[in-house]
Amino acid sequence: xxxxxxxxxxxxxxxxxxxxxxxxxxxxxxxxxxxxxxxxxxxxxxxxxxxxxxxxxxxxxxxxxxxxxxxxxxxxxxxxxxxxxxxxxxxxxxxxxxxxxxxxxxxxxxxxxxxxxxxxxxxxxxxxxxxxxxxxxxxxxxxxxxxxxxxxxxxxxxxxxxxxxxxxxxxxxxxxxxxxxxxxxxxxxxxxxxxxxxxx
Length: 200
Ligand code: ITT
Fold this sequence. Notes:
binds inosine 5'-triphosphate; six-stranded mixed beta sheet
């Protein structure tokens, strides 16, 4: 089978999450891609019915590739807390309710750790990037970053659970960190490095 390459051009980011759109633009635009999001294109948001990050990532990218006829990139990601058996995991966005409220989602994580008297505050962010071409070719890349949860949350940068996450070897949260520095170590950046190595 010939190795599939991704040539710079228009890329549909199959996500409705503004924080992800910004980070995916930061990662892909310096390489000559024009990133157009599902938000910009007003694409329908598919229901995430799969039980894994990869399953949900593929489902979102397939839907966007099908409705646009262009290569689509999706991101399914989340926070997995060791003492909570990996929760919220694939339910990370849903823990924030509707409309999304991540102050509330972070409080829920903290409350659940408190309820079980957890001493282990380790956690990881996981990101699966799925690339789907209109002819049905698919590729999946996964990245993780390990760290610790802090309370109270700190910082206004980033998105989602960033204000309560300190990556191993760091002292500040992702919410306090310069975005360029987060892109040097994040789960999304690590999945992106694998994508680059395979497709560029
Ligand atoms: P799309 O499905 O439209 O892409 P979503 O927000 O619903 O958007 P997910 O189902 O993948 O996406 O949920 C991932 C959640 O995990 C996301 O809403 C964040 O709260 C959290 N998350 C993922 N990456 C993160 C990061 O870099 N920093 C903080 N939180 C992150």
